[in-house]
Here is the input.
Amino acid sequence: MSGKTVRFAIIGSTGEIGSTQISAIGHVDCAQLVGIHARTKSKLLSQAKMLGVKPFVDLDSLLADKDVDAVIISTPHPSHEFLTTKVAEAGKHVLTEKPMGITPQSAKKMIDAAKFFNVKLGVLFMMRFQHAYQKAKEILDSGTIGDLYLAQLNWTCIRTQDYFDRTEWRGKWSREGGAVLLNQAIHGLDLLHWFAGSPNSIVASALTRMHSIEAEDYVSAILDYDFGHGIVHLSTVQAPPQSRIELWGDRGGIVIDKGELSLYRLKKSINEFIFEDSRNFGGRDFPSVDYEIDRMNFDSIPNLHVPAIEDFAKAILEDRSPFVSGEEGIGSQHIAASMLLSSCANKRVHIPVDDLEYQKLLDHLIDKGELTNF
Here is the structure.
């Protein structure tokens, strides 16, 4: 490190996400981009010249460079375990794109490598930095809505067939290890894990509903928590897109929908109302709990990689854990894997998922080339 600045290199810099990360680093005072690495040499050299940074034409030269303190991995997730291990072994800190890997076991190996080589490992679940979600977490932790009993996630979008066809890895069991669970909806699952924690078990149903792909594009699940239940719906075949999270407690609720947060405050707890309210009613004129609604709108952050990279750089400088560490990032991976195993094996799956059983499932799906029973 140079004074109070962390010097970054990016692996996979010429891709769309890599370009977003390059832009983000330029807005972080305690971060500096010093080098980039990509597979296509011509694009790499052109980009490096434009940025005025080192072009690392091979991975070994990047790992050996003493001017690089930390590396951002911006490649597809099947490569994350290998790259994280190599970067950590070189003594450099690692900030990886989501998800961590194809399987929870792969994510565990990344965490173990970072610990063994004493480097920081962060995961780019940037949605946690969005103001509405941070406010929701603050309200939830304050106890304002009382004891949580229900968490709901509706995280949907639409993807064209061309979106899958234009790459060699999307939607394929051997290359991606899934579809909507690991890619398009993983941010939603991470937010659910952040708010509600890890469930005890999951029952799920996954389908390949419309796309011509091997993996799933539609998932519904019920999650069993100590506090109650979670209800999840994920899809890449639904329009308009939805990113709605509901958190309900015995004194109110939090609803986050398209950046707007609605806070419901009950005048009485549900328990008090059920057992203490003595109002008489007839017909269908049922009494209800009186409540207030506080609606909050927040300015969106144009590039969420900015606060994520800033936090990771400060974690290095301050020698603390990143806001989204590897241990945090693996949570959504366990949930996604348990949903897939539950659907294919037609059973309730307990968390953490059994690594051996899940690998057998993945091998089975790779062999069949489609989403099928296990």
Summary: The chain has two domains: 6-127+304-320, 130-302+331-368. The chain has a mean pLDDT of 95.
